[in-house]
Design a protein that fits this description.
Helix content is 36%, strand content 18%. By secondary structure, the chain is an alpha/beta fold.
């Protein structure tokens, strides 16, 4: 029985989302620009061979792909178009980085050879070592930098005659994502795409769609995927396929056991229905050194804290239910799990892009063989200490450098204060979580540049012949990546401005005004790409509350209604003779006590004096903020995940056809 999280193509009419379209004879009307995913049905055959829609099929057009599905039972979610567009962009940039790395490595060898020849030839190995030690490596690095700046890399990518990347779409369903990769990425940089799914019907449908898209000449059989450029379709369990694809590409003389393994993939895309946890271990072994993992997890109920027990079982991390920063904490819990599983095999992850999108999280990480980095991994894994009474929190890594020797890692210390310094409340913990950077800002910057170039070239009329010409969601992706590029990459988690205001019982300041106050106080601040009200800053908790105190002085909180005040009075407590806490009203001493202990977080915070002078003047950084579509409207009405796949019997379709 397949794991329940693995997604298969579903044709069960009772369990699948139906596209509400009338069944009538029609012809394909899309111009194949990718502007709109289009659904068409046909009861008869079209006169044009290019536009034929089989009688028992529906057609969806997305990007360059024309996908046929059994009529009325299409497993397709338009919300995921942004996911596929982003994946296409990230894979293209990865393929380019890979080629650049290969070329720079070759060029460095050339520069080293030239340097040795200048010093003199070496007759023995010992002389060769001494010769190498005499080389000025700084000069070599400078040469390499100048070479990189002078090279026209676009031409180099287009004319690249080496082997491109091998991509595994491990949970491919009908193969829509795979066909877009093959059609829309640079042909010189992409060697092969493997479409895999456990459902035999999905594999058959993938082959049908390969034929419908006129790619049959590129369909590979057997072991051809490693030798020829093309698309292969595999009907296998994803974990089994990856566990049997662990042979390193540069292993020239494999032993008999290694020879039974397939070669590792350069890119593995995991897009399951639910959690990606069951697929992480094999994927981390089946991806090549420096390869890319693209991982989606849609189990936000677990990662977001609604089911902390489930989250701990899947990811060995504890979330915080209803935490203001739950969107980022979900990403960091997933990355922690990827990092710790990779470390078992002496591998270290370097996140390229980590985003929350719609109802899921999506991460792109490079995986490297790097035992030295694994040894320092405790610096990037940590715990959250969250006050139980207010939004104050601390993030503490598990490891730290020894004061006397930076090469030694030792256990870190707990927070400086045993209780919340603002309210005196206890801390609750969450994690462990990833505390390193979520993104590679250089890659994000390059992606933004490509999208801006695309917008400048195309305007309203798209040219599908250019790179990314089929991309529909480029404006939304530009806004998303712009927000990502502005985030502080060394500050885990964030405050929510509406949550801060709610704690104080005050009106909420404008987000720009509050950020300006932080900047004017001498600290850094940014937003977060998934939360419009996010305050990500290196300012300590005390500064945040000083700003809120200043705001409350200028905009006093509204007086509470009598009902709310009575409820608040019941929360005022004192200790009785037995040392137990009890409500003042229940103690019978309400009139005797002049100042009972107050448990309201707002009253405790406002009772303290500010330690800084707060300036709400709008800063230049906020005024000159780059314009972008950062937080677009919901993609469609009633958007969200569709129902899970449940399999189907091909015999029923065959009987209907007969």
């Amino acid at each position: 029985t397949a794991p329940p999280q693995q997604r298969h193509l579903s044709f069960n009419r009772s369990n699948i989302h139906r596209l509400q379209k009338p069944v009538f004879a029609t012809r394909l009307t899309s111009s194949m620009t990718g502007e709109t995913p289009t659904t068409e049905t046909a009861a008869t055959t079209s006169t044009s061979a290019d536009d034929v829609i089989p009688e028992n099929r529906e057609l969806i057009v997305e990007g360059s792909a024309k996908m046929l599905y059994p009529k009325g039972v299409v497993f397709y979610n338009p919300v995921q178009v942004q996911n596929r567009d982003l994946s296409l962009l990230m894979l293209q940039l990865y393929a380019e980085r890979r080629v650049k790395r290969i070329q720079l490595k070759k060029q460095k060898k050339i520069f080293l050879k030239e340097a040795r020849e200048k010093i003199g030839s070496a007759a023995t190995n010992e002389e060769a070592i001494r010769t190498t030690n005499k080389i000025d490596m700084k000069a070599i690095e400078q040469q390499l930098k100048e070479y990189e700046e002078k090279t026209n890399w676009t031409e180099h990518y287009d004319s690249y005659d080496g082997k491109g990347i091998r991509v595994l779409d491990a949970l491919a369903a009908s193969g829509l994502r795979s066909l877009r990769y093959f059609n829309e990425m640079s042909p010189s940089l992409l060697h092969s795409v493997t479409i895999n799914d456990l459902d035999p019907a999905a594999a058959d449908l993938a082959k049908e769609n390969i034929d419908y898209n006129k790619l049959s000449d590129h369909l590979l059989e057997g072991d051809e995927e490693d030798k020829k450029r093309g698309i292969s379709v595999v009907n296998s369990d994803a974990t089994h396929l990856m566990y049997t694809s662990r042979r390193k590409p540069d292993l020239y003389n494999p032993d008999p056991i290694q020879a039974m393994q397939k070669i590792q993939y350069d890119v593995i895309d995991l897009d399951p229905y639910g959690s990606a946890a069951p697929f992480l271990d094999p994927a981390l072994q089946a991806v090549s050194n420096g390869g890319l993992l693209a991982i989606t997890s849609t189990d936000m109920a677990a990662l977001g804290g609604s089911h902390p027990d489930t989250c701990y079982g899947r990811y060995s991390s504890m979330p915080i239910p209803r935490a203001p920063y739950l969107q980022e904490l979900a990403l960091r819990i997933l990355l922690k799990e990827v990092a710790t599983r990779a470390a078992v095999y002496g591998r270290y992850i370097r996140p390229v892009l980590s985003v929350g999108m719609a109802f899921y999280v999506r991460v792109f990480v490079e995986v490297w063989d790097d035992k030295a980095a694994v040894n320092n991994m405790s610096l990037d894994i940590g715990t959250v200490y969250q006050s139980v009474q207010c939004p104050s929190f601390h993030t503490i890594p598990h490891g730290q450098h020894s004061r006397n020797n930076k090469n030694i890692i030792q256990a870190t210390r707990a927070p400086k204060y045993p209780v919340c310094e603002e309210t005196g409340a206890e801390f609750k913990t969450a994690g462990p979580m990833w505390m390193g950077p979520l993104h590679n800002k250089d890659v994000v910057g390059e992606a933004i540049t490509r999208l801006e170039e695309l917008e400048a070239k195309t305007g309203e009329a798209k040219d599908v012949n250019q790179l990314f010409g089929y991309m529909k969601m480029h404006r939304e992706l530009h806004g998303l990546l712009t927000s990502v590029s502005e985030e502080l990459d060394d500050v885990p988690l964030y405050y929510d401005l509406s949550n801060l205001s709610h704690t104080m019982g005050s009106t909420s300041p404008q987000i720009g005004v509050f950020k300006s106050a932080i900047i004017n106080a001498g600290f850094r601040v940014s937003g977060y790409h998934k939360e419009p009200q996010a305050i990500k800053t290196d300012a300590p908790n005390s500064v945040i509350w000083d700003i809120m105190r200043a705001w409350c002085k200028e905009h006093p909180p509204k007086l509470k209604s009598k009902k709310k005040q009575n409820r608040l009075n019941k929360k005022k407590r004192i200790k009785n003779n037995k040392g137990q806490w009890e409500a003042v009203e229940d103690s019978g001493k309400a009139n005797e006590i002049e100042s009972p202990i107050i448990v309201s977080a707002a009253e405790k915070i406002l009772a303290k004096e500010s330690s800084i002078t707060v300036d709400f003047t709008l800063s230049a950084e906020i005024k000159n903020k780059k314009k972008a579509l950062r937080f677009p409207m919901n993609p469609e009405a009633n958007w969200g995940p569709k129902k899970a796949a449940s399999g189907y019997k091909r015999k029923s379709e065959e009987s209907n056809d007969s």
